[in-house]
Amino acid sequence: MTISRTEIERIYGKSFALSYKLTNPGKGNNIGPNNSVIVTLDSKDLLDDTDIHYLSIVNTPADIILASNHENYDASPSGIDIPLGVTLASFPSRAFDVEIRSTTDSIAKWIQNGKLPKNTIGLTSSEFSLGSRIRVLSNKSTADFGISIPWDVILKHKDKYLALTIYLKDPTLHVINSQKSYTTILIDCQRVAEFDVTGEAILTVNKDNNGGPSAGEGSLKFVDDDVSTKFLVGSFAGDLQCQLTFPRDVKIGSYTITSGNDAIERDPKSWDLQASVDGENWVTIDSRSEESFPTRILTRRFNIQKVGIYKYYRLDITENVGSDLFQCSEWRMIEFL
Fold it and tell me: CA 167 to CA 178: how far, in whole Å?
């Protein structure tokens, strides 16, 4: 008889009983009166506390994860992603699954006792994306998952906090540590919100399409908020500069570049993003090399390495994949509050 280790873990600290009996003998044999046995076992005789494979939330278990000021989340063109994970206090003997659940039931109580701000509201099920199950592989003791919240939800509640409690439930193997099975996410919308401010700026370039900036593939297509158009310029020799001049000082924290619709060899590969307060003295705030856009009309986001407040921003494109033509569908600038 084999007893599942997981079942013993789940009732650790208790005694349990099981029975078996003989039935249906073959070849004309009969079963005697002593045909059953009851076995009583104490789980503490089989395991001790250090043997139990407890499963826990990785990120601030039983506490609050504050997403604010570009900490504890990753921003993308579609919204923010908050990384989470589960961990097992050992390596599993085989792969297993654990369910991921969410609730807002405790928010009102936490507001009342001062653990959450008064202007906190719970995320509704339509306002976030979260997988319902995660698999921990047999050669791993951890597994990652995450929750995604779109920008329109953040902006809709930009003067509030959003909260949600994530917890583990019903693993197919092992035992959940009840003290570390959950975490509460708190999103400070005012300090998470970011805005595409490209449209505020005036674009100038040091070389343009033969048809001029307003041509079908002129430089104005680079910032027209339409990825179906593109900027194409000839005689590229690693010397293209595209400048955005804003009417005010802005804190650009990230930017996106979208590849063109054809000819991958025309894509940007290396560039510097420079900034200036006066349009004369420039500093490099982000530098990229050996970048790639493996698919067409692909938008990639780049978080600026040295964020500051400037009025002038210049994209200095020093290398493409190899053509004497350069093309790009879109360049967008994202302001951080």
Answer: 10
Q: What's the CA gap between 55 and 57, in Å, rounded? A: 7
- pTM equals 0.68
Residue type, 5: R
228 burial level (CB within 10 Å; 0-12, 13-18, 19+): exposed
Extract the tokens encoding 225: 């908020």
Neighbour-count burial of 319, counting CB atoms closer than 10 A to its CB (0-12 exposed, 13-18 middle, 19+ buried)? middle
Q: Are 255 and 263 in contact (CB under 8 A)?
A: no
What are the tens digits of pLDDT across the range 91-122?
777 899 999 999 999 999 999 999 999 999 99
Q: Maximum Cα–Cα distance for the chain, whole Å?
A: 104
Residue 148 tokens, joined: 């995604």
In degrees and rounded to multiples of 5, residue 332 shows phi and psi of -125, 145
Distance CA 57, CA 61 (A): 6
- What are the distances in angstroms from CA 22 to CA 4, 19, 31, 43? 22, 11, 7, 26
Tokens of 144: 């990652």
> Do 163 and 122 form a contact (C-beta atoms < 8 A)?
yes
Residue that wins the pLDDT comparison between 311 and 5: 311
Q: CA angle, corner 199, sides to 71 and 260, nearest 5?
A: 85
The strand pair at 120-122 and 161-169 is best described as parallel
Sheet holding 194-196, edge to edge: 194-196, 330-336, 252-258, 299-303
